[in-house]
Amino acid sequence: MRLVIKIGTSTLSHPTGHPNIRHIENFCKVVSDIKNSGNEVIIVSSGAVSMGRGKAGVENSGNSLAMKQALAAIGQSELMYTYDKYFGEYNHTVAQLLLTASSFIDAQQYENFISTMNKLLELNVIPIINENDTVATQELKIGDNDTLSARVAVSVSADLLILLTDIDGLFTADPNKDPNATLLTQVNEITPEIEAIAGGASSKVGTGGMATKIEAAKIAMEDGCDMVIANGKNPAVLYDILEGKQVGTKFTGEKRN
Ligand code: GLU
């Protein structure tokens, strides 16, 4: 299978901005094993801004665009260093790809992106994608890696997109506030009701919430790519997802021919 796995800031880093070593180490171990068993894996990773905050030691540095861009530039190298270190332990090579919205709009850039991706997959490397926050200012910004990962999944005709986040999936209401909230295990269509329950963000550290995950589901499903939202705190759920077990919320798209 060709998998695109998106992992969010809240899974990768502590609220302090320092890397969540337990999560990252487990994630790299499971992904390495999944690759060893013959799957292709492409990672879309957030975490640069948060890790930049931790690394630069500026926890209360505010949220101006220039500050976030600077923090992303600092944190991106920390992020890639961490992936390189842990994937390296399992003999896997990683590659960094930084994209913007224009990478999907400009025909030449898109062609370059696809041919680089194809070559990396041919070389058995794990591509790790993030938005190029240095140049992706407002009009160029995808803004959240949920929709970026869906665009990536569609462009490489992935079999499955998995969004690892800090919540078990899509609930009927916010489970932090409503004790009666129940997990939706299967979604076959993005209805206005689904969009309405996805209204609020789930976490303070990432950019996306459920709303951007539903946006991602729309992009993926329209192209026949299934998507799963699952909790990233236990990356072993990736094994269960690949074995077709019920994990988190599965969004099933019309199959491609
Ligand atoms: N590109 C941002 C980062 O790496 C993340 C955007 C998001 O939270 O999805 O920090």
Question: What does it look like?
Answer:
This protein is of the alpha/beta class and 257 residues long. It contains ten helices and eight strands. The protein has helices at residues 9-12, 21-36, 48-56, 65-89, 102-105, 107-122, 145-155, 192-197, 210-222, 237-242; strands at 2-7, 40-45, 94-99, 126-131, 160-165, 186-187, 226-231, 249-251. An eight-stranded mixed β-sheet has the order 3-4-2-1-5-7-8-6, with helices on both faces. Helix 2 (21-36) packs across helix 4 (65-89), helix 3 crosses helix 4 and helix 7 runs parallel beside helix 9. Bound molecules: glutamic acid. Residues 9, 46-50, 72, 130-131, 133, 144-145, 206-208 line the site of glutamic acid (GLU).
Quick overview:
The protein is built from ten helices and eight strands.
Low-confidence runs (pLDDT<50, min 5 residues)? Answer: 201-205
Radius of gyration: 17 Å
Please give the alpha-carbon distance between the first and last residues: 16 Å
Work out the helicity level. 40-55%
The helix-and-strand class reads alpha/beta
Number of strands: 8
**Strands of the largest sheet, in order across it?**
3-4-2-1-5-7-8-6
Q: Sheet bearing the most strands, described? A: 8 strands, mixed
SSE order, as H and E? EHHEHHEHHEHEEHHEHE
| Global morphology | globular
Helix run count = 10
Taken as a percent bin, the fraction of beta residues is 15-25%
Mean pLDDT across every amino acid position: 91
Helix and strand arrangement:
Layout: E1 2-7, H1 9-12, H2 21-36, E2 40-45, H3 48-56, H4 65-89, E3 94-99, H5 102-105, H6 107-122, E4 126-131, H7 145-155, E5 160-165, E6 186-187, H8 192-197, H9 210-222, E7 226-231, H10 237-242, E8 249-251
Parallel strand pairs: 1-2, 1-5, 2-4, 3-4, 5-7, 6-8
Antiparallel strand pairs: 7-8
The structure holds glutamic acid.
